[in-house]
Design a protein that fits this description.
alpha+beta, seven-stranded mixed sheet, 19 helices, binds flavin-adenine dinucleotide, oxidoreductase activity, acting on the CH-CH group of donors, flavin adenine dinucleotide binding, Diverse_Acyl-CoA_DH, flavoprotein, AcylCoA_DH/ox_N_sf
């Protein structure tokens, strides 16, 4: 397993030079304490914790996995100690409101922390990640008493959180949820049902676990309009800030799975468990979307993290391992053979990983600024502001989640490929990154579901193409300003072509969908990937523009080599990866009949 090194130079380049976070933080009420010095100190400290404590547990966690005995789950060796350090460092509350014991820093700071922690050890980061989703849900939809009871211990990290949606018969289609909630005379509810695949459902890291559960009230309307949301704690609160009796919720078993083995994935049984309604009756799914959106953005980090970690391992190996001579002549004549890194095909894989890691990180940091404004809107009770930023972020969320996790999985594959046969051997950890990353394209809504959300809901139904028009206008305005610069012109021209094409594709799909009901589902995946490639192209152009300008002026916080590397990677992205967008464009406009014409019974002819 590659030893994780926090990519602090790249992170600071994006924060300080590309997206001007110092100015952004200065404009936020929560940014008062996020001065450049403090941000720098936090990043350094977090990087150290991830490199020295969390990262070294990644491979051990995979080998040992979680253990289940008599309803109790034990995390792998070292996890509890590392989690205690995490709690003592106050990391869970980094971006949580001060009134509940947090440090009140902007939401984006939490994302930077999540990126480092998740790259170092995704399984470990799942535990605090789920808690964060629970915190956000209670903060936004809980009543005052619920906030007072749950937010402080969750923020401190003493209690953990979960998201209990999935049941044996449904994961995507939550309208099929069967778990029941019976109202009680004291205002609480009795929750009964089985949830599966529940991450962090049971474990030994925290003293209590707060389950956020979707369930159905008696006589609730069928489908998604009849689902409500409940808080179901493992131990009931005693009313004095402590824990009382054990609730009727228990872990039935642990799933045996492909990857993230140190993250406990539990079957959870609710047997007349006491639950408390959160948010309005029958609007549970809307409230749960808060959780899901947090989780989706969190999951997109998994794609970036996989690309980064796998790249770190592959790069080191490619410099060290020797094979044959470079086609353009010996590069290391004193050695028996040249190292892998001198072969163009190996560089294709390495640069693909690098372009995905750094381009994906830029996409995350771009979105994180929007998240800061959205959170500020909520905190200030400025609904219009919160909704406006929620819409902008809502458009990007499926692109981030769908595209970045697919690309991260591709990058992880390249990482093992660079190792040749050794990539398939456990010792090096490259195959673990592939196994750990596959889940990212599945949970929190599969890529297919993200694609439907993007094209069907956000682009066509909710905005009739307006979301694409708004975003592409921003990109095109940026591109136009770059046209006068010789070095930037090729990037700018390509971006202008793509932004126009993105709108044309949207319009054509809108027209097709009026006549052909399968058209949206048929085109959605290609539309999502196309959108991802173009968004990443915008991010690479933004990085290239800063590099170009700093090289010309001799300013900026980085070295000439760093800026040249940015430009070289941007060129690689535009010339070798971005052309894939055109195959997605062709594919999305092809007739639906090529998918639907084959009769179900003619899909295979066995025996
Ligand atoms: C390790 C792990 C951790 C998890 N953690 C949690 C958790 O903490 N909490 C929780 O509640 N759940 C969790 N899940 C569940 C996860 O979110 C679901 O498995 C996932 O959302 C997919 O749902 P499903 O398995 O029911 O697949 P299905 O919904 O059965 O989908 C199967 C396939 O059909 C496609 N599909 C389905 N419907 C449509 C449609 N209408 N149009 C086009 N294509 C469609 C999907 O894209 C997919 O390819 C976890 C799962 C795993 C494996």
């Amino acid at each position: 397993m590659p030893a994780y090194k926090a990519p602090l130079r790249d992170m600071k380049f994006l924060l300080n030079e590309v997206f001007d976070y110092p100015k952004h933080y200065a404009s936020l009420a929560s940014g008062e304490n996020a001065t450049p010095d403090i941000v720098d100190a936090i990043l350094t400290e977090c990087g150290k914790f991830c490199e020295e404590v969390v990262g070294p547990l990644n491979q051990i966690g995979d080998e040992e996995g979680c253990k289940f005995e008599d309803g109790e789950v034990t995390t792998p060796k070292g996890f509890k100690e590392a989690y205690n350090q995490f709690v003592m460092g106050g990391w869970q509350g980094l971006s949580a409101p001060e009134e509940f014991g947090g440090q009140g820093l902007p939401a984006s700071m939490g994302l930077l922390k999540q990126e480092m922690m998740g790259t170092a050890n995704w399984s470990f980061s799942m535990y605090p990640g789920l808690s964060l989703g629970a915190m956000n849900t209670i903060y936004l939809h809980g009543n005052d008493e619920q906030k007072q009871t749950y937010l402080v211990p969750l923020t401190e990290g003493r209690w953990g959180g979960t998201m209990c949606l999935t049941e044996p018969q449904c994961g995507t289609d939550l309208g099929q949820v069967k778990t029941k909630a019976e109202p009680q005379a004291d205002g609480s509810y009795k929750i009964t049902g089985t949830k599966i695949f529940i991450s962090s459902g049971e474990h030994d890291l925290t003293e209590n676990i707060v389950h956020i559960v979707l369930a159905r009230l008696p006589d609730a309307p069928k489908g998604t309009r009849g689902i409500s949301l409940f808080i179901v704690p493992k131990f009931l609160p005693d009313g004095n800030g402590g824990m009382g009796e054990r609730n009727g919720v228990s872990c039935g078993s642990l799933e045996k799975k492909m990857g993230i083995k140190a993250s406990a994935t539990c079957v959870m049984n609710f047997d007349d468990a006491t639950g408390f309604l959160i948010g309005p009756e029958n609007q549970g799914l809307e409230c749960m979307f808060t959780f899901m959106n947090t989780a989706r953005i969190g999951t997109s980090i998994q794609g970036v993290g996989a690309a980064e970690l796998s790249y770190q391992g592959a790069l080191e190996y490619a410099k060290d391992r020797r094979s044959m001579r470079a086609l353009s002549g010996k590069k290391e004549p004193e050695q028996i053979a040249d190292s892998l890194i001198h072969h163009a095909d190996v560089r294709r894989m390495l640069l693909t990983q690098k372009a995905i890691a750094e381009g994906g990180r830029a996409m995350m940091y771009y979105a994180a600024r929007l998240a800061d404004h959205m959170v500020e809107g909520h905190e200030q009770g400025d609904t219009a502001k919160a909704e406006a930023y929620d819409d902008k972020l809502g458009f990007l969320t499926p692109i981030l989640k769908g595209f970045l996790t697919e690309m991260g999985f591709e990058a992880a594959n390249h990482g093992a490929q660079v190792f040749g046969g050794h990539g398939y051997i456990r010792e090096h950890g490259m195959e673990q990154i592939i196994r750990d990353t596959k889940i990212a394209v599945l949970y929190e809504g599969t890529t297919g579901i993200q694609a439907l959300d993007l094209l069907g809901r956000k682009v066509l139904l909710m905005t009739q193409g307006g979301a694409v028009r708004e975003f592409t206008l921003k990109v095109a305005n940026f591109a136009r300003k770059q046209l006068t610069n010789k070095r930037m012109r090729p990037f700018a021209l390509e971006l202008l072509k793509l932004t126009a094409q993105w709108n044309v594709l949207t319009l054509r799909l809108m027209l097709t969908a009026r006549k052909d009901r399968d058209a949206i589902s048929a085109a959605a995946y290609d539309f999502l990937m196309y959108s991802g490639y173009v968004t990443m192209a915008y991010m690479w152009a933004r990085q290239a523009a800063v590099a170009t300008s700093n090289l010309a002026s001799g300013e900026g916080g980085e070295s000439t080599e760093f800026y040249n590397a940015k430009l070289a990677t941007a060129e690689f992205y535009y010339e070798r990866l971005l052309p894939r967008a055109q195959s997605h464009a062709t594919s999305m406009l092809s007739p639906t009949s090529n998918l639907m014409q084959l009769d179900v019974e003619h899909m295979a002819f066995h025996g």
